[in-house]
Amino acid sequence: MRVLARVGVGPLCSAARAVIPCFWRGKYFSSGREPAENQVTPMLRHLVYKIKATGPITVAEYMKEVLTNPAKGYYVYRDMLGEKGDFITSPEISQIFGELLGIWFISEWMATGKNAAFQLVELGPGRGTLSGDILRVFSQLGSVLKNCDISIHLVEVSEKLSEIQALTLTEEKVPLERNPGSPAYMKGVTKSGIPISWYRDLQDVPKGYSFYLAHEFFDVLPVHKFQKTPQGWREVFIDIDPQASDKLRFVLAPCVTPAEVFIQSDETRDHVEVCPEAGVIIQELSQRIALTGGAALIADYGHDGTKTDTFRGFCGHKLHDVLIAPGTADLTADVDFSYLRRMAEGKVASLGPIKQQTFLKNMGIDVRLKVLADKSDEPSRQQLLQGYDMLMNPKKMGERFHFFALLPHQRLHGGSHPMNACQSKPSPSPVAGFGELAWR
Ligand SMILES: C[S@@+](CC[C@H](N)C(=O)[O-])C[C@H]1O[C@@H](n2cnc3c(N)ncnc32)[C@H](O)[C@@H]1O
Fold this sequence. Notes:
Layout: H1 42-54, E1 57-58, H2 59-68, H3 90-93, H4 95-111, E2 117-123, H5 129-140, H6 142-145, E3 149-155, H7 159-169, E4 177-178, E5 184-189, E6 195-199, E7 210-215, E8 224-229, E9 232-240, E10 248-252, E11 271-274, H8 276-292, E12 294-303, E13 312-315, E14 318-320, E15 330-332, E16 335-336, H9 337-343, E17 349-355, H10 356-362, H11 365-374, H12 378-392, H13 394-398, E18 401-407, H14 409-413
Parallel strand pairs: 2-3, 2-7, 3-6, 7-12, 12-16
Antiparallel strand pairs: 1-9, 4-5, 5-6, 8-9, 8-11, 9-10, 12-18, 13-14, 13-15, 17-18
The site of S-adenosylmethionine (SAM) has 20 residues, from helix 2 and helix 3.
């Protein structure tokens, strides 16, 4: 594996994208970090005690414990992203990804009347790379955003990652204000002088005109799994293997469980994954957007209500058995965008899911690539091209990842802008990314 150098290309250039962009949660390479096969981890011990005390647990409870348990959760105390970690994400692959998303938010802000202030709220910001790239675009387009009062709000449960985000994003001369007991557990000022705050829950983020961003966030939220049987739907649980007291196994519930209400009555698949936590977050986002305006942009791998068994683990850039050495590997399930759309309950309009390749193309990735490549030396140019290929190639991330947006109804159907005297209806401008980019 080759570690790539910093790309010195133009004013929008960011910090180095660290790796040859080959490792993402869908492609399996070795990083040298081997999965801890058959290891009795502290998390496994905790789960075995729990199951012995209260019986088998749902897959959702298992995912929640393994990923975000405050004492031992996979996400809580480690940096799992990048070359030495377990997977890589689009913002870590190329600066262009975040730049185009920054332009998307500015475009929506302009299309909806250039509000005097907005909050940028990122859910699950990883290393803070994506927000960093977006903030750089905001600085570069300072003349467009001038007089707009911007604040940044990060929703992050991981202590370790929030520290890395602060390092990436904040001005070190301004000390961080830490207040572990308060909803905003950390506050600071970004390198470009914008107030930034951290929360553990979206509910704690102040309400107000906001742009919400969730990249590879919904796929780590806990899913319930169900199997169709001759007796009807049965939920999948996790139990201790009777043959080995330090091993776990999947079992089917003997009777109906409460989570079955989440299955649609006309469901035709024989195996279904449902993520109620995603539903709650979408409802909260929808209510906020309907009430105070703004938009949500969600990017993740997923499907539109068609896939069945997608629950899987990643460790050291390899697929990992989800029940082995819990707490040492990432757990994930594809996002069901049809469920997210249903959960918006008509409060807001939704667009997508559309393929990452299409969204980025519509956002002008080719133009941006050319600008950067023309200013680069040969190694940096190769690096940019590799990053582009990883993001856009249908066999890599181009078709596997999708973009989905929530917008106020009036944004799509008109009503927020003064009417053109010649028209009987207002004509809202198209939403960037979801249609071809019109250069004006
Ligand atoms: C797969 S990583 C994606 C990171 C980043 N968005 C990226 O694309 O590089 C998931 C992120 O969500 C955070 N996370 C996981 N569960 C969460 C939860 N329930 N609430 C808030 N953040 C969570 C993780 O700590 C991590 O920052």
